[in-house]
Amino acid sequence: MPPTYPHLQKACQLYPAIDNHAHPILAGQHRDRFEFEGLISEAQGYSTSLPLSHLSSSFVKGSALSVDSIHTLACKRAVPQLGARLNLQSPTWDSVKATRSDLPYSELCELFMGPSVTGIQCMLLDDGLGGVEEFAEGYAWHDRFATSPTKRIVRVEIVAEDILKPLLKPHLDKVPLTSDEALRVLHSFNTAFKTALTDSVNDKNVAGFKSIACYRTGLDVEPVAESVESILSSLKDVLEMYRETSTIRLAHRALNDHVVRMTLEASGECGKPVQFHTGLGDNDITLNRSSPSHLQAIIKAFPKTLFVLLHSSYPFTREAGYLTAVYPNVYLDFGEVFPFVSGSGQRSIIRQVLELCPTNKILWFPSTDGHWWPESYYLGSIQARQALYDVLSETVALGEISEGDAANIVENALFHNANKLYKLSLEPDIAIFGQK
Q: Where in the sequence is the domain holding 288, given as residue range(s)?
């Protein structure tokens, strides 16, 4: 029998947590909007609300999400964990899906998201995820599932797109923008975007910013613009895309980098961190450009800005740990791998985080980028807590650290590091699980 460590176990299982990056869940009327398999995989599927005529034949017959994800170890592990909460005997993926669909939505949410179930005291929600405005609950609605008020994380590319749309709309029916017209649009955009950043800086409900440059153009953001002309050229390309698709999506390198630099400057002045999606994501990212190592130049260029590397940067976790060790303004969130990665994989990732990353710079992010489904918060919480215990108890058993040190690492990772970084000024709710 391996030794047990009650003090460490109590910290892992019962200490309150700050979820430093998650997303809203679906509103009740949209609870079946997306394939439930998205709970355990970032593979792509389709919206169940779309008519089949809108989907390719291969998409209808199956996708990596609906066909392959249920055969992963992550899914096979999740089935009994979800089944236990649903009181199922010998649960299967299909029985879990059927049972959850029969439950009233408020009951389902409470079953998997109640603070006494997850131990989440405060959520920081990025509400800029595509589909949130149409299908999900507002950020303040989630207060019922935590014991401290929910805060927002502002996704800056979405803010920029919303600003650009009315500025470019008058030019849709004209010949391509002249350089003078493009320059005027850029100046108007800069003014409006700075105002939006200032508003977020001054908003007490905003805890920080987030960039999805990783998805759009890659993490190799240029610290200094090549030229104004390169930004104007990107702006013209955005207009052409707007003409062709009726949508604006920032996926043009020079302009994207410009948005990121403006955000980093504002962040450095106010102290609100900037989160970056790194590593693990869907097939919209270019994997070899999602490594946080590409951020090194921009990290050095903005030493006053606090950078948070999201999602354990998996599979580039060691590179992320290196950056946190050598730059004082870099922090690492070890999330999204719960529950996307197998149990052994999760333990390996935490070990890699702890190889080099200072333990005062580790942030717990429990869920699957917690979004759409309440079960994502539950699985993220129980799996992350268990993985922490497994790894740190092993380290204690080897005599490398004391049990007290291990418990302190857990309490800091779950709560205190994020509380300090995001300036939340919270006291830990030690009774969150109903313990005295």
A: 6-26+104-421
Number of independent structural domains in the chain: 1
Judge residue 315's burial from the number of C-beta atoms within 10 Å of its C-beta, 0-12 exposed, 13-18 middle, 19 or more buried: middle
Residue 143 domain flag: yes
User: pLDDT tens, 229-270?
Assistant: 999 999 999 999 999 999 999 999 999 999 999 999 999 999
Decide: pTM greater than 0.90: yes
Classify residue 371: in a domain, yes or no: yes
Answer whether residue 375 is part of any domain. yes
Tens digits of residue pLDDT in 407-419: 999 999 999 999 9
Does residue 14 contact residue 123 with C-beta atoms inside 8 Å? no
CB atoms closer than 10 angstroms to residue 36: 20
Strand order in the sheet with 330-333: 17-22, 120-126, 151-155, 206-211, 274-276, 307-309, 330-333, 362-363
Question: How far, in Å, are 22, 412, 417 from residue 427 at the CA level?
Answer: 21, 13, 12
Close Cβ partners of 45 (under 8 Å, ≥ 6 residues apart): 34, 35, 37, 38, 63, 64, 65, 66
CATH number of the domain at 327, please: 3.20.20.140
DSSP 376-401: HHHHHHHHHHHHHHHHHHHHHHTTSS
In a domain? residue 60? no
